[in-house]
Amino acid sequence: MVVLSLFDGMSTGQQALRNLGFRVSKYYASEIKKHAIELTKHHFPNTVHLGDVKNWRSWSIDWSKVDLVLSGSPCQDLSSIGKRKGLHAERSSLFFTFVDILTHIRKYNRSVLFLQENVASAKKEDIEIMTETLSTKPVLIDSKFFTAQRRRRLWWTNIKVKTDSIRDAGIMFKDIIGGGMVDKDKAMTLTASYAKSTAYRDKIKLHKYFVKKLNNSYGGAFNYVIDEDGLYRALTQTEMERLQGFEDGYTSILNRTHAGNLLGDAWTLLVIEYIFSFI
What we know:
- There is one protein chain.
- The chain is of the alpha/beta class.
- Helices cover 31% and strands 13% of the residues.
- Strands 3-2-1-4-5-7-6 form a seven-stranded mixed β-sheet, covered by helices on one side. Strands 8-9 form a two-stranded antiparallel ribbon.
């Protein structure tokens, strides 16, 4: 299999293919985040890094050989936690770059498989545009059935995914923490900004930070653990890895802030494995 991954992030798609035993002869990755590329090189040194997706016309690829195109185009302009500027705003409009690339590949390989992801909280009109553009209705999958995290995502794909076979793995938030207690059955969606916003604080300052957050309208969306002293703490790097379905230590070459940024932007590994199981 030859794979082209756009907005590759921490290469979750590549890890899912490996876990399922797919033989990938070539994996092309387009990514610009320094630490994402560093982590991918650590786990997958044979990855062919292409750089910025905007420069795709200059890539040296045999387009006829591409079997699978992966795309998690930016959601910042679509998500309910962002400013919701819409699909045509600067970052989220990169969806149309993915469409251009897919259209180009189809000139040489009509049977190429594709997977496009974005947030389920996008406005109805933006979801409709993506659906009409791809001539494919999205599949809604929540990570809560696979891990201890609520994470609703839409997947546009020509892989024949069946959602009626999804069964809850029964993994709860309390099951993945390294100590203390939580007040939610499932963690809220892990975001790229989470690790940064909860970094570089001592125990008391972090507790006060969460108390302040819990007293405003966004408090319920924050993930925290109540430790043995009754103080609020942020999730550890290992706990964030577990929320996304990765093994402990998967991001250990990075510090917590950089790892959390990637994990918050990433796909849930077990969800991708489920989708790819239908290939």
